[in-house]
């Protein structure tokens, strides 16, 4: 068995939340839960005349990495 096949097999055995964390780490994307929270905040702020989620997403990495 090749190393790649071993890695693929190990990934398939991970629980879904750990696969999601691995995907996030490999792609450097924001987690789905965070994006959903941003969308909810966008809806809430839109009702009150607040900030668009696109603006938040553009600044998010800067805010998180300081």
Description:
- This protein is mostly helical and 66 residues long.
- The chain has two domains: 28 residues; 36 residues, no CATH class.
- It has four helices and no strands.
- The model has no long low-confidence stretch (mean pLDDT 79).
Provide key terms for this protein.
2 domains, elongated, 66 residues, 0% strand
| Residue share in helix | over 70%
Please, what is the average pLDDT?
Answer: 79
- Domain count: 2
What is the percentage of strand-forming residues? under 5%
Shape: elongated
Order of helices and strands: HHHH
- What is the tally of beta strands? 0
Low-confidence stretches: none
**What is the number of helical segments per DSSP (H or I, 4+ residues)?**
4
Termini separation? 43 Å
Radius of gyration: 17 Å
Describe the protein's topology.
Blueprint: H1 3-12, H2 16-27, H3 32-48, H4 53-65
Give a summary of the structure in a few sentences:
With 66 residues, the chain is mostly helical.
